[in-house]
Amino acid sequence: MQKFILIFLFAPLFTMGQQPIPMMNFTELEPRLYTNDGNTWVVNFWATWCAPCVKEMPYFEKIGEDYADKGVKILLVSLDFVNHLEQRVIPFVKEHNLGSEVILLDNLQANSWIMKVSEKWSGALPATLVFNNHHRSFYEQNFTFEQLEAIVKKALTETL
Question: Is there a contact between 102 and 47 (Cβ–Cβ < 8 Å)?
C-alpha cells in the first residue's frame, strides 16, 4: 500500500517535464497572430499527414534554437483532427523531440478563419506566418532551411 501511495504522489513529477499540447479554437489563437511583444514570431500551420510539413519541421526547430537570442519564437499550429491529438500529434511531437510550442487548432469551419490569417492563403499546407512589430509576411509553401532562414533574417531587419 505504501508503494502505491508513493507512486501516486510522485507520478505527476515525471510527466511535468513534458510540454502539454493545448487545443484551442481560432478565436483563442487569433490574438497570438497579432502579438506585438518585441519578438519575431514564426507561426507554422502544419499536420502530421502533410509530408512537406513533416520534412520542414526540423528547419523550424533549428531556427528557433539558432535565433532564440534574437527574440525569434516558433509556434507550430497543428491542423490535425482533434480526435488525433493522442494518437498522432502527441506521438509525433515526442518522436521528433519538438521543443517549440505546439498547439492543436480545433479547426471546424476552416473557411471562416483561413482568410483572417492571410488573404493570400488558399488553405493549403504547409503555411507560415512571420511577424513582429515592424514586419508581417505570409507564405503558402514548404521551405528549405536556407529559405526559412532568409525570411527570418529579413523580418529581423525590415520595418514596415
Answer: no
Alpha carbon distance 60, 42 (integer Å): 8
Instruction: Report the alpha-carbon distance of residue 52 to residue 15 in Å, rounded.
Output: 31
Residue 66 lies in a domain: yes
pLDDT digits (tens, 9 = 90+) for 39-73: 999 999 999 999 999 999 999 999 999 999 999 99
Q: 148 with 126: CB under 8 angstroms? A: no
- How many distinct structural domains can be found in the chain? 1
Using DSSP's 3-state secondary structure scheme, residue 146 falls into helix
Is the pTM for the entire model greater than 0.70?
yes
Q: Which domain holds residue 144?
A: 19-157
CATH number of the structural domain spanning residue 127:
3.40.30.10
The answer to whether residue 53 sits within a structural domain is yes
Residue 2 included in any domain: no
Are 62 and 143 in contact by the 8 Å Cβ rule? The answer is: no
149 domain-assigned = yes
- The share of the chain scoring above pLDDT 90, in percent, equals 78
Q: Are 74 and 60 in contact (CB under 8 A)?
A: yes
Confidence band (pLDDT; 50, 70, 90) for 111? Answer: confident
CB 40, CB 156: distance < 8 Å? yes
